[in-house]
Amino acid sequence: MSQRHRRSDTIPADTSQACTATLAGGPASSDQADGPGHACARPALGNAKKSVSTLDDWKRLRADLRRSDRYRMRRDIAALLPDSATAKCGLGRRPNGKGGVSNIEIRTNDGRSFYSGVLACGSPWICPVCGPKIFYRRSLEINQVDDVVREQGGTTVFATLTVSHSDQDPADLLVPFMSKAFGKILAGRAWYGHSGKERTRRTTKGLPVSDGLRGDLGYVGMSRAMECTHGCNGWHPHIHAALVFDKPLDDDQVDTLREFVADRWADYVEKTLKREVNEHAVDVRKWDKDEKTIGWYVTKIGQGWNLGTELTGHDKKHTKGGNENPAQISARYSRSVRAGHPDRQAADLLVEFYKATKGRPAIYISPGLRKWAGLAEEQTDEELANEDINGQVVTELSATVWTAVRSLNAEADLLRSSEQNGLNGIVDTLHDFGLRVTTTSRDHPEDEVAVPLVIFRPLLPTNHRRDKT
Predict the structure, then answer these.
(1) Do β-strands 452-456 and 392-397 pair in parallel, antiparallel, or remain unpaired?
(2) What is the percent of the chain with per-residue pLDDT over 70, rounded to a whole number?
(3) What is the pLDDT, as a whole number, of residue 2?
(4) C-alpha distances in Å from residue 92, one per residue of 14, 70, 115, 118, 363
(5) Are 411 and 71 in contact, with CB atoms under 8 Å apart?
(6) Potential cystine with 178: which of 156, 227, 237, 288 (Cβ 3.0-4.6 Å)?
(7) Pick from 362, 385, 408: which residue ends a domain?
(8) CB 245 within 8 A of CB 220
(9) Phi, psi of 229 (to 5 degrees)
(10) Is residue 212 one of the residues assigned to a domain?
(11) CA-closest candidate to residue 70, choices 140, 114, 23
């Protein structure tokens, strides 16, 4: 293989310290961890000796590293969890809804290439390929809600709840408990007031009727997400929620809401877990990015952080106190697998976390809020992960070529080659991997223009093969 395809040419030595993210905020890149002599290391294909002297070059290089690591982590997680949906993620073509299967295509949009038509598992918690896509799409919806709140003159209150924990608390205890948090807090007569028959009876008799705190404050609905890290004190789950109200709230009203949430949370924790709640367990405050009233949180995350990413971007946050989020645990485990010494502690944590979160949505937007903000009909995480993104089709890959690409762990290499050299780069990369491929034109009635199709080159009959001796 030519020297232009070696990883050492692609990443100059002086860039190693600057590219320390696996999933942003994660450990050092696996490419650097392997080193050129590692048994599992292999050359990265594509255009080499690329300048990284500009900010855009740095961003592109970091994005390439994250993408490569995500595909590697998915393979390692699939081997660790063979019965999970992630074990089947990316294996073949997904159903097209018409009784057939979709074409596997490489598309490009805004300089970035991606696959279309590949079956996705839709696991936001454990899949490093599907998760970022799901969180991104949910964050767009939450930001759309935030825009509507501002236009309508409403108020968003940002709330964070956590609970004391220890290394003796299993994830399957804390995760379900935290998932039910706001369902237990925003309930009862104090919240809903008089309703139904009781409201009718009191109105008929001329008795006072209460709208509850919900009606007094003009509550519309909420979006919420659970963030979970692990450290020396075990699993540390906490809930982030954006509570939306259809009118401006003053400080006294927010204080009233804070006291209500804090009291209800303390009751729920003490009743269910038999634990006391400390002063750090509840934080409730207005979200107002323009006035930076929540700047204490936003500024430590970095520029460009918004309500959607604050709720959904936990895989990109830098954890503190030695804690790791699931993305960082996955990266640690994946590196150890490639080093030939699987980290059993990381493996056990991933299995435990998978079992605790299986089937649970990572992000929730209440139906009332979705309707009020004019959002589209809700899609499941699996639907979001399998949804195609518009882009220009570079080429289609035949099913047999895709199987070979998967077996060679070349998914990220092919995308990088597509971004650098288009169809020619894809074909050259497949040739460098030793695959005998060629291109033809896809014959599809829906194609407005000819779409290339990469297939294996047919073998000639024995009596027609060229004599190489």
Answers:
(1) parallel
(2) 78
(3) 42
(4) 39, 18, 12, 6, 27
(5) yes
(6) 237
(7) 385
(8) yes
(9) -125, 170
(10) yes
(11) 23
Write out the two tokens for 16. 């190693």
Residues 180 and 277 in one domain: yes
Q: Are strands 363-365 and 219-231 parallel, antiparallel or unpaired?
A: antiparallel
Residue-wise pLDDT tens digits, 330-347: 999 999 999 999 999 999
User: pLDDT category, 53, cuts 50, 70, 90?
Assistant: low
Distance CA 349, CA 427 (A): 40
Give pLDDT, residue 304: 38
Quick one: pLDDT at residue 457? 80
Q: Are 224 and 160 spatial neighbours (Cβ–Cβ below 8 Å)?
A: no
Side-by-side strand order, sheet with 392-397: 112-116, 104-109, 392-397, 452-456, 437-441
Same domain, 265 and 399: no
Of the two residues 448 and 382, the one the predictor is more confident about is: 382
Residue 351 lies in a domain: yes
Please indicate, yes or no, if residue 12 is contained in any of the structural domains: no
Q: Of 385, 414, 448, which marks where a domain is finished?
A: 385
Query: In this model, does residue 37 exceed pLDDT 60?
Result: no
Domain that holds residue 175: 130-385
Least confident of 264-273, 357-366, 421-430, 453-462: 453-462
Q: Are the CB atoms for 149 and 143 separated by under 8 Å?
A: no
Q: For residue 181, which of 142, 222, 140, 152 has the smallest C-alpha distance?
A: 222
**CA atoms in the 13 A half-sphere facing the CB of 438:** 5
Reading the block at residue 233, the tokens are 């004190």
Triad 244, 145, 122: Cα angle to 5°: 110
R_g of the chain computed on alpha carbons: 26
Residue position matching structure tokens 């001796």: 469
Q: Does residue 321 carry a pLDDT above 70? A: no
Same domain for 393 and 377:
no
pLDDT of residue 209: 82
8 pLDDT band, cuts 50/70/90, is: very low
Q: Which two tokens stand for residue 239?
A: 């809930």
Residue 158 lies in a domain: yes
Window from 18-27, 118-127, 263-272, 298-307 with minimum mean pLDDT:
18-27
What is the C-alpha separation between 446 and 439, in angstroms, rounded?
19
Q: Which two tokens stand for residue 27?
A: 């450990």
Judged on CB neighbours under 10 Å (0-12, 13-18, 19+), 353 is buried
**CA within 13 Å, CB half, 122:** 15
Mean predicted lDDT score pLDDT of the chain: 80
